[in-house]
């Protein structure tokens, strides 16, 4: 009996700790649209974006990627804006598609379109960029009830990461004083594998050893947005979705960090990047390594999140 009395509060504490980190969502948001993301279109976009280097070291390729994104955004018929800015004596641009009414809290979905150096960067981050292009197509056909901006950012990778010259920092700073509901960052959403590495034993105890899921991560102040996105992805079906809530410093390595700095909630949607994908920041990160069917269901879920 003594052991039972000791074990019960210990187990309860462990369960509470696990719930705080994983933020379970017991319900889902039904997917109501008849439109779905096209997996073949995602594959075509990733293939196109990875044909040439797109980085500060290869500005012609980066400009070509921006034009490609702009062209596909404009095909939807929505309002498209180029947010141009200078960094290290060169001109860069964010490509922004606007949806919904002009008034009300703004929801942002963003992904960086640059890659590291001359690497193909299929998962990092042509996958997120391709997701934006398909998201724009769906939003044009199913306008959201509140304002939504879909943004392809320049300059997430070094030498700009962590600086005010990140495209996402430029955009976040341009919204000072405005009503922002939150930001959803698509950062590596296409790689799925039989195994999933974890950074420590605590994570290994709480998360699967199989890399068949998409993750939604944020800090304590982001938990409502994280649960909303998680419920929407679950309701879209076709992909397992898990979440992580913890110190923001443990998952600030992408564009959402700049919206945190501005005081707004933001979440990271990711396949866990280098923890799962052995091709991260290598020449092996190619278009043929991604699972476009799972990737499509992730973007379906994001679409549902911003329209509900």
Features:
308 residues, alpha/beta, 9 helices, 38% helix
Molecular structure report:
The chain is α/β, with parallel strands linked by helices and 308 residues long. The protein has one domain: 3-Layer(aba) Sandwich (Aminopeptidase), CATH 3.40.630.10. 38% of the residues lie in helices and 18% in strands. The chain contains 9 helices and 8 strands. The protein has an 8-stranded mixed β-sheet with strand order 1-2-4-3-5-8-6-7, with helices on both faces. The longest helix has 21 residues.
Total DSSP E strands: 8
Give the overall form.
Answer: globular
Domain unit count: 1
Indicate the proportion of strand residues.
Answer: 15-25%
CATH topology name, in short, is: Aminopeptidase
Helix-strand string? HHHEEEHEHEHEHEHEH
Just give the CATH class: Alpha Beta
Quick one: CATH superfamily?
A: Zn peptidases
Task: Let me know the average pLDDT.
Answer: 93
| Strand-pairing-aware structural class | alpha/beta
Radius of gyration, whole Å: 19 Å
Q: Span from first to last CA?
A: 50 Å
Strand adjacency order, main sheet: 1-2-4-3-5-8-6-7
Largest sheet: 8 strands, mixed
Compute the number of helices: 9
